[in-house]
From TrEMBL:
Superkingdom field: Bacteria
Protein name, as recorded: Transcriptional regulator, XRE family with cupin sensor
Presence of the UniProt keyword Transcription in the record: yes
Keyword Ligase among UniProt keywords: no
Length: 182
């Protein structure tokens, strides 16, 4: 099943379960009703930030939009993980399936040399734990830059905008867990 089909099915299911119209979800998420309709029909490939906004509006973890619903343990090779690519040198792979009781998401991200990505935030009451596993990462939180090398770890409030930058000479790889606090 293609990622757009998965997103379309999940968006429709989650919106319907909550009794939300497209108009009401547009108000809650800040994503236009037209865009929501296109995503729900599988006619649009939403950006990473658009998916985060929709997830925030629905008050669900991001992966509940992009994961096939599963209840059994499973093995996911990288080649079969869900990939979201911004087309500008930033790729995000996620490995855990959405579950109603799970309050975190697990991602592995790649940032090409010279690339950057700004997240608008992951919704209220979210914290991110990030571990650099290869290369060097500059994490910008408000006006503070954290220069992180392989093996460095940081935890921060991810409800606010933050930027990942690779100023190094090799691809940066980092693992991040987004935790949704009560």
């Amino acid at each position: 099943m293609e990622l757009n089909e998965i997103i379309a099915e999940n968006l429709k299911r989650l919106r319907t379960e909550r009794g939300l119209s497209l108009g009401r979800l547009a108000e809650l998420s800040g994503v236009s009703k037209v865009m929501l309709s296109q995503v729900e029909k599988g006619e649009s490939s939403p950006t990473i930030n658009t998916l985060w906004k929709i997830a925030t509006g629905l008050q669900v973890p991001y992966t509940q939009l992009i994961d096939i619903q599963a209840t059994k343990p499973f093995f996911v090779p990288k080649a079969e993980s869900a990939l979201v690519d911004d087309g500008k040198g930033y790729r995000v792979y996620h490995y855990n399936r959405a579950e109603g009781s799970r309050d975190f998401e697990f991602f592995n991200s790649e940032l090409d040399t010279g690339a950057s990505f700004t997240s608008e935030g992951h919704g209220t009451h979210t914290r991110e734990s990030l571990l650099v596993t290869a290369g060097e990462l500059v994490l910008v939180l408000e006006t503070v830059e954290y220069v992180m090398a392989e093996g460095d770890f940081i935890q921060f409030d991810s409800s606010r905008p933050h930027t990942y930058i690779n100023r190094g000479e090799v691809m940066t790889v980092f693992t991040n867990i987004v935790y949704y606090e009560g």
